[in-house]
Amino acid sequence: MRRSRLYIVIVGLLVSAIACDGAKNQDFIDYIKIGEDSYLGVSKVQEGLEVPWDIQFNESTNSIFVAEIKGGISEIDLNTNAINKVYNVPNVFHRRTAGLLGMALHPDFDQKPFIYVCYTIKEGDSVYAELTKLEYKDKKIISNKPLLKIEGANGHNGSRLIFDSKGYLYWATGDAHSLTHAQDSTTLNGKVLRMTDDGQIPPDNPISNSYVYAWGFRNIQGMTITSKGNLMTSEHGDAIEDEINWVRPLNNYGWIDIEGYHDTEKEKLIVSKSPRTEPIKAWTPVIAPAGLKYYGHSVIPEWNNSLLLVSLKNQSLRVLKLDQSQTKINGEQVFLKDYYGRIRAVTTDSKGNIYIATSNKDWNPQKGFPLVGDDKILKIEKVNFTPQSYLNEYVEDIAQVKDGKTLYNMYCASCHKEDGKGISGTFPPLIKTETVGNKEKLIHTILYGLTGEIEVSGVKYDQAMPSFQFLSDIDIAKITSYVRSSFGNSQSAIGETEVMINRKNTTKN
Ligand code: HEC
């Protein structure tokens, strides 16, 4: 009798010990190898979501708040993984990338239970981006106070929110597709703005009586603060030069005049006349960086003191190792490449576990996605055993000679799709169209990009096509020849010389 009771107690202790340690072995859906005999387990926290644009962990409630693009805010209890709808932000205007975007929780949430959200609204024909403070009580929102409204657009609305350790709120705004805002320090778009927790301009802002803290940004998609207090952002370039910036007051980050490292003659000339700050990391071809989170835990020592960056086009989780000063990136590793699809948001809990949110139900899903159960929130944590099978770090083969198909998939397929069909109303098809059939026009479009409204096969397109002037003549020849002989097209190839002559004799219209 006694003996069996003791036995039950021991088994009970063992079971609860495993439960306290996080997910049980059988809950893991995948494993990732991150070092010699060092593994992470991935488990599903929630599924069936629709573009969870931001996820934020809150310690006092041991929960994760989720903002979905159509306007819903939910809370996931991390003790049970149960999800509870908290609020629907009224008047959210959702189209393509516009909708409910960034979210921040007040750092003193126990005393000040406020959730800050930014989102787009539409009034008449005009789109605006609005920042609102929500009051949370008993798992519901009980009041709502708009703090600031700025210009918005159908795209390039940013935006992320974050508090610093002194309790100031930063709002990274998009340039709203404007050609002038980012370089105009008197407007609020294409900026990082700084304000009090009640939306007021702090007396010690770098420009007196202005929200503007730093400028020269295109479309910030991630923002975090390191343990030493450095503010970091991730930003979308157009066809080239995605960036990570270390944001400091009054600095100008260069858009729309320049982007990426200051490495061309034109850029060096601009910088010699008026100072611009270089990114601490840039990517060409672009990866479409999204959520950014400083990781500072010893539970995953390999990743301690790094920036975790998730990406959309590149569909991966990147670990960007910081130096001791947390101002330089001196290592980059890529995980989960193309495995869960587009990843938009990342957060960590106080134990050093990582959470990521997929974005496969957004406006631009990639081939093979969404997967069953998308969009998902996944938990990534350290495991103390050796799994039978696991995912490895992704290493790109840079020595590989790239053919037309590879180049097309690198530079064009994220928009026009691998099959050239595009997305009706958003990205035009490249199948038997007039432009694809016209060599000069095709080369010109790729060299200089395209803005303004066009009509292709009876459908209107009003988005911008970026310029690919940075590609070599031979690469453009390979891409255009591939397009003209694929997807049902059967036109002649384009040679390197034809591209060279076109580049020499033409300018942007
Ligand atoms: C970021 C998304 C994006 C990428 C990447 C992109 N395009 Fe485009 N492309 C567009 C959009 C949007 C338009 C329509 C522009 C407009 O409405 O003015 C367009 C238009 C075009 C057109 C003209 C269509 C017509 O019938 O007039 C061609 C041709 C084209 N793109 C080819 C390419 C090729 C080749 C690549 C790769 C080198 C590429 N694009 C990369 C978004 C993109």
UniProtKB/TrEMBL annotation:
Keywords: Heme, Iron, Metal-binding, Signal. Residues 399-487 form the Cytochrome c domain. Coiled coil: none annotated. This is PQQ-dependent sugar dehydrogenase. The keyword Nucleus does not apply. Residues 1-21 form the signal peptide.
